[in-house]
Amino acid sequence: MKKVFAFMAVAACMLFAGKANAQLTLNVGYAPTTLTYTYGGNDTKMDMNGFFVGANYNINLTGDLNVAVGADFRFNTKTDKDGASLFGVTTASEVTRTQMLIDIPVLFNYGLSLNSDLRIAAFVGPNFSLALSGKTKSDVAVAGWGGSTELDWYGEDSDWKKFDIALTFGLELGYRQYRLFGGYNMGLMNLTSTDDATMKANAWFVGLGFAL
Predict the structure, then answer these.
(1) Backbone phi and psi for residue 64, each to the nearest 5 degrees, phi listed first
(2) Residue 150 falls within a domain, yes or no?
(3) Positions in the chain short of pLDDT 70
(4) Can you give the residue range of the structural domain that contains 112?
């Protein structure tokens, strides 16, 4: 947590120092996330749908080189359903996983203007993530009767870690005030404290932005 607050303070200083040459952009997009758990040489993957909304300031450093400092709210979700019938008794189950995060990307970008309205840019940099919550909810019904249980990913006895750093890279196409961008977040941190195990989060993303 201290690392996150320290970085946010540095990002804020960068933002205010360069706001005279900065441009604010509002962003929304889709970022399907894969959690890969590795133990004993075996990988277990969980794919989740991800959605994000946020904003960034693109601060000019020199020439065509800029740095975009932003903050995004991200929501990941996955639902699995199953049903069966045995001796005339119908059973059904539904497992829903949800995760909410705050992302703080710091992306260095270099662009080229193709004409007065069209611009293309490549970007790369770190993305600092803090998980706000994570839950698995299981609902089971047998012949119309049922119940539910809930597991907190970051509860008192959990081995999940909330803080992550990803290497983010991709391309952006700008037309006047509109931005179309896409890329990849490659998780660098081990998100589990279990001995001899690793868990990494990786995500493709695509989004739309509007520069104010």
Answers:
(1) -95, 10
(2) no
(3) 1-21, 83-92, 141-146
(4) 2-75+99-128+160-211
Note the pLDDT of residue 146: 62
pTM: 0.84
Residue-wise pLDDT tens digits, 189-207: 999 999 999 999 999 999 9
Residue 171 in domain: yes
- CA 211 vs CA 172, 174, 177: distances in Å: 13, 10, 5
Query: Which residue bears the tokens 């195990």?
Result: 197
DSSP 145-199: EEEEEEEETTSTT--B--EEEEEEEEEEEEETTEEEEEEEEEE-S--B-STTEEE
Write the CATH number for 179: 2.40.160.20
Answer yes or no: are the C-beta atoms of 19 and 205 closer than 8 Å: no
- Residue 13: phi and psi, rounded to 5, are -60, -45
- Per the CB < 8 A criterion, the answer to whether 33 and 201 are in contact is yes
Give domain status of residue 67, yes or no.
yes
